[in-house]
Amino acid sequence: MRPPRPAPAELQRRLRAAYPDAHCALDHADPFQLVVATILSAQCTDARVNLTTPALFVRYPDAAALAEARPTELEALIKSTGFYHNKAKNLIGLGQALMARHGGVVPSDPAALGALPGVGQKTANVVLANAFGVPALAVDTHIFRVARRLGLSKAATPEKVEADLCRLFPREDWIELHHQLIFHGRRVCDARRPDCGACPLLDLCPTGQGQMKDPHLGVRLAPTVSRLQSSVPSLQSAAPAAQAPTDGIPQRIISLVPSVTELLVQWGLATRIAGRTRYCIEPRWIRNTVPAVGGTKDPDLDRIRDLAPDLVILERDENPKGVADALTALGIPWLALEIRTLKDCAAAWRELGTRLGVPEAGEARAAALEASLKGRRRRGPRALPLIWREPWMSSGPDTYLADLLRQGGFTPVGPDRYPVLSDEDLAALAPELILLPSEPYRFNRRHQAELQKRFPEAIVRLVDGQALTWYLSRTEAGLDLVRSFR
Ligand code: SF4
């Protein structure tokens, strides 16, 4: 049965009493400063933005100055907010667009505001509400979490949560509610340790009362029967208890690499996984028990910070460098792997094993792989692993997949990295074996038939993409698969 949803009017009454001072946390003196600060606040804390903007606004006091900014100078001023290349580009674009289209003035029209560089719907809503008093309810990470815990929305995206909240609460209260929910999320309903025992909303909250699983942590909080109880709820399962690292060994790991997430489970470290990307989907049960922190290319850094990891694991091809820069800016330790060969796998197993306190597991796997690679390999048939269609893309000779083929006795062909190939390029490569993995592109029998027709002499195979591309967790399976092709 669905737990009862709190009455909106009572919820508002409590929030008003608890947070009479709720206000916009970004320091600003006018709409221009607010839109700049809001752009900087993406993937960054408001406090850090407030440390950055005073010097920024002295150097660039208005749209005209920003439009003329030199990228390197601007980047140096905003570097600590993370993703500073993109943010600098957006800010200069913002200044130029304001000068070209709006006489240097920030427009109060939602459509015109939303069309400015770097200003998405969330930023536009923040600016409309706080600079112009236009009712809007931008859903950030705190509101998303608190609204779902309170049972106000079951939606899985900020946009849908926003729509649910706007339906429930009177339009004239949206701005006030926006600030109150953010304050509540920051002060009481913490991402990792919601202080249910001290929460003024406890008797209205189905999550705090243990009537439903915490949609953020994915576990049921133990019922909190009295506000005088401990303010730290105990969790009933493998929930992320806050722990200091044990002898420097990470206890709260976030993996931004799907195959590494699977590897951690293989090594018996599941209870130490505090977060994963939405592509970390193996083993399947992990989807319901470990919180997701966005994608591999664009992880949600607020969410990562809220989960308080003591190690984030990255891979250089899988995750952009900007993610590592942002983690550094947030003071979060990270480890970046680089996997382009099977030798890299052996080195990574050893490094991860040592770093995570399971050196035997890493050494056993590395030694077994090295033993299986001993001996000379002949240069075998020309193999072309495709990874995308329209346009055709392949996994080049300097990638992990190509080395798997090489070690399996094939000769990978094509340009390095992940090149786009024209029909003529494909023909010129004259492949003798064409592999069509099931991911990242879902190749099917129709594609196989199409290529077989064009390359009647070649062998064209549909293959298990995870076996071929999930390094570390499936390297041995990938090697077995490739060897079976000979
Ligand atoms: S009772 Fe707990 S989960 Fe519910 S709003 Fe309060 S702190 Fe958050």
Structural features, described:
The protein has helices at residues 8-18, 31-40, 46-59, 63-67, 71-78, 84-102, 110-114, 121-132, 141-149, 158-168, 174-187, 258-266, 286-289, 301-306, 321-330, 342-355, 359-372, 400-407, 423-429, 445-454, 465-469, 475-484, and strands spanning 253-255, 273-276, 311-315, 334-337, 382-388, 392-394, 411-412, 420-421, 433-437, 459-463. By secondary structure, the protein is of the alpha/beta class. α5 (71-78) packs across α6, α9 packs across α10 (158-168) and α9 (141-149) packs across α11 (174-187). The longest helix is centred in the first third of the chain and has 19 residues, at 84-102. The structure holds iron/sulfur cluster. The site of iron/sulfur cluster has 14 residues, from α9.
